[in-house]
């Protein structure tokens, strides 16, 4: 599919959707593509989560992929 065809299909999908969250996300993605120099700023909560995760990694508090998958499976069953 060439660029012109893709643009037309996207425009039609955007016109038809009533999902405001989806539209906001599409807008955010498209907006970020036009500003290469823009830096994403994390919220205080996100900064704290990243910091906590880095500390856990330093302490070796990590899961293997299998362990993470098992925990996720258990969580989804609840």
Question: Which key phrases capture this entry?
Answer:
78 residues; mainly alpha; extended
Radius of gyration: 20 Å
Number of helices: 4
Structural class: mainly alpha
Beta-strand segment tally: 0
Ends distance: 43 Å
Give the topology string: H per helix, E per strand.
HHHH
Overall spatial form: extended
Question: Which residues form runs of ≥5 with pLDDT under 50?
Answer: none
For the sheet with most strands, the description reads: none
Percent strand? under 5%
Helix content: over 70%
Mean pLDDT level: 90
Quaternary form: single chain
Task: Summarize the entry for a quick read.
Helices cover 73% and strands 0% of the residues.
Protein model, in words:
It is a single chain. This protein has helices spanning 3-16, 20-34, 44-58, 65-77. The model has no long low-confidence stretch (mean pLDDT 90). Helix content is 73%, strand content 0%. It has 78 residues and is mainly alpha-helical. The protein starts with a helix and ends with a helix.
